[in-house]
Amino acid sequence: MAIRPEALIARFALQPHPEGGWYRELHRSAGQVCRSDDGRKRAGLTVIVFLLTEGQLSRWHRVAGADEVWHHAGGAPLDLWRLPPQGGTAERLALGPLCSVEASAEAAAELAGDPEPGPLQVVPAGWWQAARSRGPWSLLHCCVGPACSSSRRSGSQPWFLALLIAQRTFLGSKRLGSSCISWVTI
Are 62 and 54 in contact (CB under 8 A)? Predict the structure, then answer.
């Protein structure tokens, strides 16, 4: 019997995520760190469980001042796009389960031209990122260090045009708008 996204949402008590998909914070470090760039104190690390279902997007956003590490936990592989803070070309990474050599060769032939999924990918601090599942659902754990804050902003910024171009690549010919972009300040 296949696992349904609704069962995962209930099992993990997930809530809608501001950038799209579903999430719940699993861990926030009790220990504090002092960031060298601005002297602000933050918890050392946060970990969330994150679910994207078919057709859902994690819209373009960035985490300022902290790296984000994505870990594939189950379901279909996921495309993770990242774009340097200064703009440029968006890079497509893939997250997915480790496979046997035989299964990996079959998958590679089936997905010719697509990046090979790995169980972990890193988005450096300040880089733009977006994601979408390649199947019915993808379950992930995302770790942010220093810890993520709930302070969010959205709207038009100098990188808006570059992100719209990257978004067009990400979505294909679907209609674009300012709701595609947000960022997190920590």
Answer: no
pTM for the full predicted model: 0.77
CA–CA distance, 155 with 110 (Å, rounded to integer): 39
The pLDDT tens digits of the residues spanning 142-165 come to 999 988 765 533 333 444 444 444
Q: What are the Cα distances from residue 32, in Å, to 41, 44, 147? A: 6, 5, 9
Residue 175 CA to its chain's centroid (Å): 21
Query: Quick one: pLDDT at residue 147?
Result: 85
Closest CA to 5 of 21, 17, 19, 29: 21
Can you name the residues that pair with 78 across neighbouring β-strands? Answer: 95, 133
Let me know if 139 is exposed, middle or buried by CB neighbors in 10 A (0-12, 13-18, 19+): buried
